[in-house]
Design a protein that fits this description.
The protein is an all-alpha fold. The longest helix has 22 residues. α1 runs antiparallel to α2. 84% of the residues lie in helices and 0% in strands. The protein is built from three helices and no strands. The protein has one domain. Keywords: Membrane, Transmembrane, Transmembrane helix.
Length: 76
Amino acid sequence: MVVTMLLLAALAIAWVDLRALARNGRIRDLAISLVFMGAALTLGIFSLLRIHIPNPLMGIKRVFQPLSLLMDSLLQ
């Protein structure tokens, strides 16, 4: 029920915001708005359904930690 309400709210917001962008011919802005709105809606639904969303900073740390250790060993 709550997910349905979230979808209806997102559709109402999209109707107001995206209609003006389409009317003015701002296709790039429309595409970017759709991408961000879709990402926000997806994260909101995941949060409502209590699906674990990993922290992006942990992925960045996992990628750059070996490089940091290498640089640290080279500078000592």
